[in-house]
Structure prediction request, 278 residues.
Amino acid sequence: MRVVVHGLAKEFMTGQGKVRALAGVDLEIREREFFGIVGPTGCGKTTLLHIIAGLEKPTRGNVEFVGEQRTQSRVSMVFQDPSLMPWRTVERNVPLGPEFRKQPVPVYKRAAQFFLEVVRLLDFGGVHPAELSGGMKQKVAIARALANDPEVILMDEPFANLDAQTRLLLREELLRIWERDKKTVILVTHNIEEAVMLCDRIAVMSAAPGVVKNVIPVEVRRPRSFKSMADPDFIRCMEMIWDLLRYEVDRAMKENHPSRSETPGKEARRKPFFTWWE
Ligand SMILES: Nc1ncnc2c1ncn2[C@@H]1O[C@H](COP(=O)(O)OP(=O)(O)OP(=O)(O)O)[C@@H](O)[C@H]1O
Ligand SMILES: [Mg+2]
Prediction:
């Protein structure tokens, strides 16, 4: 399924006034593509995923899903925090989608077994989330997303809370799973290396309010693994993305910390707190 994002803008009304999160995002994510989104903190990446998932309404623009039409849920989301149900065992956490769609018990039990095997956690079906490591919990969240049989999987920094080695392992697991049945995946990450390792193309967003600055194709051979990081194409792609991103990250930091800026942004100039002693 193709995901087409047309001119998405989002403003939040808060106690302090209007917050502009997105300022007109256009994107086209191809069928079965692994698509990455990177951008400075606060540029609206999570907001964009929430709008695509239908959890949030845009102020302007829309999202179109182009492809096969099905009655089943089209989109699954994996969050930074695996948000499993602590009172349910692993095998009861995985098939939430089919269970909520009121599929017969044997069907969702089979789905649980199948996807626990996919993430190599078959032996842990009977335990509760509290007994798992962070990486294992995140694998259960991925199994749950897959068991929902979505056409599109949205991932919001799914490995951000994990240690560096678990991150590497899970990246390879995710690559293996994606190579298996190639769903359309949209991954938000702060980690450029992770984006290049996993994605076909990567959108670089501007500092808030977010727009897409560039979409970079990742020309690193598949299948990829840890070793791909030594590929000159890999390094070139990381450099290209960082060159685009560093300016935006710097801009976002200066907006948030005007005292660090030589030429304060509009926000800073408006704030009397930073000017009263001048
Ligand atoms: N529910 C909300 N109400 C008010 N403002 C919000 C809400 N959700 C997000 N925002 C604001 O919208 C902007 C974008 O937030 P968002 O969480 O989408 O950024 P992000 O790119 O995901 O950041 P990060 O990289 O830190 O996760 C921020 O200024 C944030 O404070
Ligand atoms: Mg976010």
